[in-house]
Design a protein that fits this description.
This protein has about 350 residues and is of the alpha/beta class. The protein is built from 13 helices and 15 strands. Helix 7 links the parallel strand 10 and strand 11. The longest helix has 17 residues. The mean pLDDT is about 95.
Length: about 350
Amino acid sequence: MPRSSEILISGTIIYGDDFQTLEGYISIRDGIIKEVGREKVDADFEGIVCPRFVNAHVHVGDSAFKDPPFLPLSDLVGPGGLKSCLLEKTPRDLLIEGMRRSLLDMAATGTFAFADFREGGEQGVKMLLEAQQGLPLISRILGRPQYNETEIPKECWGLGISSTRDHELELLKRAVAWARRAGQVVAIHAGEAGNDDIADALRLEPDFLVHLNCASQEDLNSVAKAKIPVVVCPRSNLVTGVGLPDVLRMLDLGITVGVGTDNVMLNSPNMFEEMQLLAKALLHDDRQVFKMCTLNGAKIMGIDQRAGSICEGKEARVMVINGRSNNLWGSQGPLASIVRRARPSDIVAVF
């Protein structure tokens, strides 16, 4: 169908920034949600219409070597760990193929935007851009400081720091200063293997933090006071055995919480699975969990004014879910069923 043509989708709409449900339709023209109505229409697609996901923290660079042995976090992804060794010896074309397959998987499973912590310096960034070529995904690439260098490639959205314990603090300060001069954001892994790196991370005044599963009440109070968003990755935390984040406490403190799937070598970039774990183990609040996986991620990535929820004037980054599939038939609430049990096979269409 030509991009300029009108597309009508009817059914149950997960509408607005508060994700309320309404029966009606949406009209899409030129890739924009032009109208939301409550009438019955002769539609092109029918089902549960909801915004697509934002994967706010992922490492797609390790997609060529999935499901390694269960090892401590430092042995898996720390400096000199298994991941860095595999990245060094895996041919470039295989790394790119792995990335592209993961990006295709993300698009097919409902994700439209992702933030990637990019290893490998300028060459690593070029590989991801090559892998993403032609795919309908919004990427935010975060480069890492390399050895004694503080600059990151100009194609990056910002600076992504693995942990303040992995580098000399003075180097990180220079890298952050360089990023700020370049108008780039700063994001830091913190509180994943312990909470000893959180204070230093906060001193660098990042735009957002990743993990915080080991954060104390005092740590979370400091994060909330600084108004710094957090991206949690609970499936990854389970694999590495470092403990789950206190999402409820974060939200009670007013912290904006997004969600990511983290390393592809540990977990698929399937946000449905992340949602289910969050809703069933950490937060019995379907609407809040869905918001974390969509609009909150969009806010953290700076794209919430254009996407992340179904509102007139926003980009039509939406998907249609078959509410009468064998999996979802008998649902007592469309939003609850999307969050707790929907899977990629329930998707009718993505836009």
